[in-house]
Structure prediction request, 324 residues.
Amino acid sequence: MSAPGTGDVRRIAEDALAWVSAHRGGFALGEDALAVDGRVDGTWKPLGELARVCATVRHRTDPADPLHDRAGALLDFAWQQTDGGELFAQLQRLEPFATYPLEIYAALASAGHRHTGFEQAAAVVARTRGWRLTEQHPTRRLGVLMAEESTGVHRPGQAPPVLPRTWLGGLPEPWTFERPAGYALTHVVFHLTDWGRSDGALPADLAGYLADWLPPWLDTCLDAGMWDLSAELLAVAATLPRPLDGIVPPDAWQRLRTEQAPSGAIREEGRDDEGAEVADPERHFAHHYHSTLLAAFAAVLTLARPAGAPAGTGPRHGRQGAPA
Prediction:
């Protein structure tokens, strides 16, 4: 890629992953990871996002790229936190109908980390009516179905179509876009493309709709200082089978780079208060880890595409289900 702003894209990826590495302790699982009343959003969710993003970074970067090694080290760290997958097996016994263990496990499995015992137990539960009838929002259900497929867990019978029931799948009026719809549509794209690892996975009508309306949506989010959602939309843009020049505003990456702190962190929204990390490190991590991870994710997907080329023409490294 040689378009204007490429240097900003590369620096965002490097500095963001450097911050993540320096703060990897924030992703560590604590003693409450298996607690019945544990805070999943504060324990397993960050670790799962770390694994998901790093699996794609490792897949989309050359083995000689320092980003490749850094992502690999973070993936190893995430796997170690699960005790080599044993915690997934314990979670499955404690909460057999919870879907988040399989969703997080799928991220690590995509990078080659597997636990046979967990997969066998999950396959047994997936054959029950209780599992099939778990009530979820359509976007979440799509993620579960994709996790099942990627890990070889098969429910009996044909799963009913889910995509048409999602906000994006319905091709809604573009003026109805708002924050919840934005996060929903980005995750539909992430699920369908295996988080940027699979090319050509988006239906043509969805790809065309996004190519038309991502520019104003992205510009609006950048103007509003919604850096987290802006990073997610930039990642979506990088998955489309269209040249990025007509989709991403010319100064989008420069604007995101301007908001990146010298440490490499990017706040979810607004501006950082000076000294906030020193005053409350835990709160600072909570408000920065996701947007920083997604900025690195979007940057790597963008860098993997030659200038003016559609998605799928850049490099891929490694193979599905094995360490890249």
